[in-house]
Structures are given as structure tokens and as C-alpha cells.
Amino acid sequence: SACAPYIMDYGNFPPLRSPYDYAHAVRRNHMPWPTWIYSHGMLGKKDPVREPAPSELWVQALSPILAGAKGLMYFQTNMGGARRRPASWEAIGQANRMIRGVRAFLVEGDPTGLAQAGRDDVLAEAIRARDAIVVPVVDVSAHRAMDDFRCLLEEDPHWELAPVGTYVRVRVPDDFAPVEILEVIDGTVRAPAGEPYAIGRDLVIPSIVLDDARPVRLYVLAADASVAQRIRDAMVLPEWTPPEP
């Protein structure tokens, strides 16, 4: 946001991984206290204010989680933007539910640096809690990046993420014994698309597909058989009763 203090190289747009780098630096500077990060939401103002695309919201939401933040907020989000960009509003809801499912582990755990993607343009982390290791994965490979010319000449420019396929390799600590590998997606918990396999103390999650429609993935290494159900229960939203007129 233009109102927030920041440092950048004039004339050069920050790379797509900037939300992660920023959140990572803030968290390290604030340790050992917990860190909350705000992500840009939807302004809801009239055009030509640019609302984030769904893919941009996915990257913004999962990057603070990747960096080890304990909480996530959205800056200036309102229903005006939701009505004008329903797909982006839906992406916020989907990302929130995904994070809600593992939030107990995120609050308890800390990044370990023990996860590595098979590509430099894909970010991954292993967040260790007692019964689970949460592994967020974020695509920061741009098919079309933002620049000054696009902002000046295009009516509604957006980052366009490149489709990529990769794997993530997680070094499992000696005192952690996974009994199940899960993927948290679309309000459900399921087995990963690829069949995970072990190389010594390393666990490899293969066949990870990321693209502009879904540039993030969220995996969980569970050390207890109850973890999957705990995630499902956490994603169930309480029933909402509208207020009296």
C-alpha cells in the first residue's frame, strides 16, 4: 500500500515473492513475539481502482503463513469489492478456510527451514508443531509480470502466474514420526495427488501442480491419526444467524 512505509528500487517492480520476503523479515525482526500480517484485500471503490485477482489473493494469503505469521488480516476489505469481483472474494474465503483448518498448528509451530521445493520459483516451508508439520507451498513464477508500462497502458493489469510442476522434499526431524500425509484443499482433507515416498529421513511429496487458478498448496505431515479429523472440524464454520431488522 502506498500509505505504508517500504523500501524498493525505483523504477523496478518488486518480484512476486515480495509478500513472503516482507512477512519473513517482519517476523524475524519481531521474534520471539508472535507476528500478525495484513494482506491487501478489496477496496470496493469504483474503477479504475484495481482489485486483486484470485491468484494474487492466494499468494498474498499464504505468503505470511509460509513466513511463520500467527495471524492474518485483510486491509480495507469490504463488500463493494466482493460484489464487483466475486471470484476474488471467493478466493479469500477459500484461503481463509484452508488456514482455519491448520491454525492450531500454526499458532503452536514455527518454521524450520526443513522444506525445499524442486524449483527456485516455488517457495515451501515446514512449520513444526507437536502432532503435525504444516507445509505451505506457493508459486512465485510469473508468466506475465507487472511493470510500469502495463500499469499505464492496460485497463486492469494483473500478475499472471506460470503453470509449474514440482515436488517438495521435507527433512523429517528425528523425534517426529509421520503416520499420514494430507492435503488441505477446498474445505476438505485428502491424500496428495502424488504418492509420497521417503529417502532416508527425507519425505518427498511429488506431482505438485501449481497454476494461475490455484498457485498454492497446503500439506500436513500428521504424527497422530486424529490430525485429519481435527483439521476437518476446524474448517466447519459456525452457523450464522442474521441480526434482527
State mean pLDDT (0 to 100 scale): 88
Radius of gyration: 18 Å
Order of helices and strands: HEHEHHEEEEEEHEEEEEEEH
Shape: globular
Number of helical segments with 4 or more residues: 6
Major sheet summary line: 7 strands, antiparallel
Strands, total number: 15
Low-confidence stretches: none
Strand content: 25-35%
Helix content: 25-40%
Determine the N-to-C terminus distance. 36 Å
| Broad structural category | alpha+beta
3D structure, described in words:
By secondary structure, the protein is of the alpha+beta class. Helix content is about 30%, strand content about 30%. The strands form four sheets. Strands 3, 5, 6, 7, 11, 12 and 15 form a seven-stranded antiparallel sheet that branches. Strands 4-10-14-13 form a four-stranded antiparallel sheet, with no helix packed on it. α1 (about 20-30) packs parallel to α2 (about 55-65). It is globular. The two termini are about 35 Å apart.
